[in-house]
Prior knowledge:
The complex is a heterodimer. Chain A is mostly helical. Helices cover about 75% and strands about 0% of the residues of chain A. Chain A has a single domain, classed as Helix Hairpins (Orthogonal Bundle). Chain A has 3 helices and no strands. Chain B is an all-alpha fold. Chain B has 2 domains: about 1-90, Up-down Bundle (Four Helix Bundle (Hemerythrin (Met), subunit A)), CATH 1.20.120; about 125-169. Helix content of chain B is about 75%, strand content about 0%. The longest helix of chain B has 26 residues, at about 55-80. The mean pLDDT of chain B is about 85. Chains A and B meet through helix 1, helix 2 and helix 3 of A and helix 1, helix 2, helix 3, helix 4 and helix 5 of B.
Amino acid sequence: MSPLTLYQLVALILLMAGLFGISQRRSLVGMLISVELMLNGAGLSIVAASQLTPANAMLGQLGTLFVMGLAAAEATLVLAIIVVIARRFGTTKTSVVSTLKG
Amino acid sequence: MEDMAKIVFGAYALIILCGSILAVGAKSLVRAMVGLIATLLGVSGMYMLLNAQFLALMQILIYVGAVCVLIFFAIMLTRADSGGEEAESAPLRQNLLALTAVLSVGGILGWLVLTRPLATTGVPVEVSIEKLGLGLLGPYGLAFELISVVLLVSMAGAVLLAWERRNGK
């Protein structure tokens, strides 16, 4: 097995763990943790594919840097949304937070 | 030297595997966060192995230093852990459905990865930090500016959302 395949398999493990977590967790914070796992898998896959093939390596590293920045922005917003939900509903369980206004 | 790299790769892969299992399986959210941090450090080690030192440093700075602290704040502010929201285990049906989704996606992608290997150079190329900086300011300047706008907007939006008015609404 080539090194690239091994790195892709590790990224796949991260994606699978995140997917399992996001469909099985019942609190918003747990789901946020799973999303971070999946984004990390994406970053690892991009870097491995650009460093180990003749592709443009700089582009791969910059892409992963942008993924990290977007993950930070997303975590900030999700934190604010979780705080609002916790204030309004008193809990962050996804089964409780299922009502619409009106 | 080649064997050393394989051993280190195996160690990092083990850290990532155990960390991600802890991150999605732990009953307590704080323990899940410890698993997430272990996973992030493992991925950072993988970046080191891939000869991307700058990314490894950024991974630790941004993820472990900023994002994980943010999530700890979320746990603390919502008192998510003491409520025991993940305390009772998920119903069996939900677990089975989640497992089905994961195995179908993972099966398809794993089959693709294993049966269609790309041509690799074998040795990771080195990109100096100067080249990365010149790239950010030269050909990819627009993306660089856009991501700063996205970060600014998300920060302002977070402040606006979580703003607590002093004297009632």
